[in-house]
């Protein structure tokens, strides 16, 4: 499945492809919860770190769905980076995203980003790498190996230097495509994700 190609499969040599999904408190965190659920469906072994849970009922529903799928939730993120490198094959960055405004300076996001900057395993960022400005691009943020742009690439994607860039935007309504003058790529067959 092409959806799985959004994750660095060659770097998942172990028998159990373990993925740590790090979720922030806003919309990107909810997307991370949905991502974890999909990973589980495709036989990955996701673990979620979601320290600041949103009171939004939809986000609570996503959390419940993950719990009912027996996806474990970490109570804390190890600050010893080697523990993360040894336990997981990849990290999904769903901490801040495009809606972040200075969120990287507030806890728990600042501590999470400080840890993610030092890990050695591949990072897959959802929409906008955490710590990046959605318009101007990188600042003191992380350097992901894979970027999955949601709906359409943001301006900051021009500064992405990682291995793979995917866009997941097949189901954007035509009026939205027209309004924002988007030129979506061709999605082959029934694929929901396409490599750029």
UniProtKB/TrEMBL annotation:
Cellular component terms per the entry's GO annotation: mitochondrion
Signal peptide: none
Coiled coil: none
Alphabetized Pfam families for the sequence: YjeF_N
Xref: PROSITE patterns: YJEF_N
Entry GO MF terms: NAD(P)HX epimerase activity
Residue ranges constituting the YjeF N-terminal domain according to the UniProt record: 1-184
SUPFAM superfamilies, A to Z: YjeF N-terminal domain-like
PANTHER family with a match to the protein in the record: NAD(P)H-HYDRATE EPIMERASE (PTHR13232), YJEF N-TERMINAL DOMAIN-CONTAINING PROTEIN 3 (PTHR13232:SF12)
Protein name: ApoA-I-binding protein 2
Organism, as annotated: Mionectes macconnelli (McConnell's flycatcher)
Gene name in the database record: Yjefn3
